[in-house]
Design brief:
- The complex is a heterodimer of chains A (168) and B (182).
- Chain A is α/β, with parallel strands linked by helices and 168 residues long.
- Helix content of chain A is 34%, strand content 20%.
- Chain A has five helices and six strands; from the N terminus they run H-H-E-H-E-E-E-H-E-H-E.
- Chain A has a five-stranded mixed sheet with strand order 4-3-2-5-6, covered by helices on one side.
- In chain A, strand 5, helix 5 and strand 6 form a beta-alpha-beta unit.
- Chain A is elongated.
- By secondary structure, chain B is an alpha/beta fold.
- Chain B is elongated, with a radius of gyration of 31 Å.
- The chains are: A alpha/beta (168), B alpha/beta (182).
- At the A-B interface, helix 2, strand 1, helix 4 and helix 5 of A face helix 1, strand 3, helix 5, strand 8 and helix 6 of B.
- Strand 1 of chain A pairs antiparallel with strand 8 of chain B.
């Protein structure tokens, strides 16, 4: 650094301070902000879980206690047929809710399920059997109605056609 | 911004006058803009979750609506399967998707792709289960609401056989009244 005599250094212009150069940071912002905006999810996806039916038999535990437990818990299955809902308890017909004007009666199903849940308060799992031609949205809507107010926490996807034995 | 002025005097055939260049520079004050952008940047960084990116809805899919929501198992690793309008595909994978006809067909020629997909899912399930931390293989099905249940049922049987016991369906949030049709 050059030496300035005290008399000269007084005359050096110290008043002009240069501001920071914001151009590089602006460039960075212009890249990052649109990228983050495109990454932002405007529609939040929800998830609904189902259980798969487990293979029965094969257990070698306390036979009596297992049988007692089985007796206590009812086997509730809800069939979604193209023209109705069909509810069976222990393979016996409990209730049929036919469609009205080609529409599924979800409000009626809600009432029937709340009555059924009161009759079998310990049973928290329900099997749902959707008929092949039923659109997926009706299956999910039925699962949702079953889960309403926490009446059934476990939903079993019944894949076998054994449900069809009732009524048809 | 530079203010430049040119003056040219061509009157009376005289020689060109010297150009006078203005040296006034008006600077744009971008400090307030940088302030706003910094706040916006911090807000976006805080809100953009990388985990959510994995579960965005595939284009062209209209998921069904639900009120209830289940949380995904924390120790699980998810494989996302997309049931589009024509094909079933595994998201972010190189394996070829299969058509609905190929899924349910008993024709041996059509079953080749189905077998390929089955092997892929089986490998994925084994890989997840044997990974560090003993993760649970999870399957997230993103299906269009109009897909008939026979395909979903068939695929669930298919994926259960390949080692995915925990299955989730992608939905969108709605109100209770809409679900009950009131």
């Amino acid at each position: 650094m050059a030496y300035h005599a005290p008399s000269k250094s007084r005359s050096i212009d110290r008043g002009k301070s240069q501001g920071p150069n914001l151009v590089p940071i602006m460039n960075l912002f212009l890249v990052i902000i649109p990228m983050l905006i495109t990454m932002m999810v405007s529609v939040q996806m929800q998830m609904i879980a189902i259980n798969l039916p487990t293979a029965s038999g094969g257990g070698k535990g306390d036979k009596n206690s297992q049988e007692e437990k089985k007796e206590e818990l009812a086997d509730i299955t809800l069939g979604i047929m193209p023209d109705k809902f069909q509810i069976t308890v222990n393979n016996k017909m409990y209730k049929e809710i036919p469609n009205v004007d080609g529409k599924y009666q979800f409000a009626t199903l809600d009432n029937v399920l709340s009555t059924l849940a009161k009759e079998h308060p310990d049973q928290k799992t329900i099997g749902i059997y959707p008929s092949g031609e039923v659109p997926f949205q009706y299956f999910i809507r039925t699962v949702d109605v079953c889960k309403l107010d926490g009446r059934y926490t476990g939903i079993k996807y019944v894949t076998s056609s054994r449900k069809v034995l009732v009524g048809k | 911004m530079k203010k430049i002025s040119y003056e040219v005097n061509r009157g009376r055939g005289g020689a060109r006058k010297k150009r006078v260049k203005g040296n006034k520079v008006a600077e744009l004050n971008i400090t307030s803009l940088v302030d706003i952008l910094t706040i916006l940047l911090l807000f976006l960084i805080k809100n953009v979750s990388m985990e959510v990116q994995k579960y965005t809805i595939a284009p062209g899919i209209e998921p069904p609506l639900t009120v209830n929501t289940d949380d995904i198992i924390e120790s699980g690793q998810t494989v996302v399967v997309i049931f589009g309008k024509e094909k079933i595909e595994v998201a972010n994978s190189i394996v070829e998707g299969i058509t609905y006809n190929e899924l349910i067909s008993k024709n041996k020629d059509l079953q080749a792709k189905r077998k390929g997909l089955f092997k892929f899912l089986e490998k994925q399930a084994t890989k997840i289960a044997s990974s560090k931390g003993n993760n649970i293989p999870l399957m997230l099905i993103q299906s269009d609401r109009s897909v008939p249940c026979r395909y979903v049922t068939e695929f669930i049987k298919f994926s259960a056989g390949s080692g995915f016991a925990n299955i989730y369906f992608a939905t969108l949030d709605t109100s209770k009244n809409e679900v009950l049709g009131r």
